[in-house]
Amino acid sequence: MAAEPEVLDELRRLRAQVPQLTGALVTGAEGTVLAQDTPGVDPEAMAALVAAAHGAAVRLAELTGQGAVGELLVRGAHGYVATYAAGGSAVLTLLAEDRVNLGRLLMEGRRAGARVGELVDAHRAAAAAHPKPARPGKPPAKPVGARTRTARVARTTNGNARTTTDS
Q1: What's the CA gap between 68 and 127, in Å, rounded?
Q2: What is the spatial distance between Cα 48 and Cα 41, in angstroms, rounded to a whole number?
Q3: What is the pLDDT along the chain (167 residues), one digit of tens a residue?
Q4: Distance CA 72, CA 117 (A)
Q5: Does the pTM exceed 0.85?
Q6: Three-state SS letters, the chain
Q7: What distance in Å separates the CA atoms of residue 45 and residue 63, rounded to the nearest whole number?
Q8: Which of 23, 80, 91 minimizes the C-alpha distance to 53?
């Protein structure tokens, strides 16, 4: 992702603002890792869980009429996991020690989520406007069409088959 250096710069700035952060991850809403600074944590596994948790939060907010999800906060015995909607298609996740100033975490996380969202959305819009040409020598990918089912033909029975009923 071309926006990754800018996103990593934002994550570094955020870690300087909130020293108790122990990790930061930016994912696509579907669970792909876009940028990460998560020492000691598997970013792919974390991204999958973030996508599931964010999806559940979105559904919960919709069901209860609370509107668009802005953030999700989990408090564990050893610290916090905070996720923030970042633009239209990304999620910022922050890991923090239990001694973090929670108000500062929330405020800085919201600001960073908005900035990361701007960067990711701008990059995706630019990529959509200027798609990469196909590599030479490789045939273009076939579009995936809707699958259709062939009608089943009724089975015929063997003319010699007999059925009996006991009376």
Answers
A1: 26
A2: 13
A3: 556 889 999 999 999 999 999 999 999 988 999 999 999 999 999 999 999 999 999 999 999 999 999 999 999 999 999 999 999 889 999 999 999 999 999 999 999 999 999 999 888 888 788 776 666 655 555 555 555 555 555 555 555 555 555 55
A4: 16
A5: no
A6: CCCHHHHHHHHHHHHHHCCCEEEEEEEECCCCEEEEECCCCCHHHHHHHHHHHHHHHHHHHHHCCCCCCCEEEEEECCEEEEEEEECCCEEEEEEEECCCCHHHHHHHHHHHHHHHHHHHHHHHHHHHHCCCCCCCCCCCCCCCCCCCCCCCCCCCCCCCCCCCCCC
A7: 27
A8: 91
**50 and 26 in contact (C-beta within 8 Å)?**
no
Place of tokens 């952060």: 21
Which tokens sit at 167?
């009376």
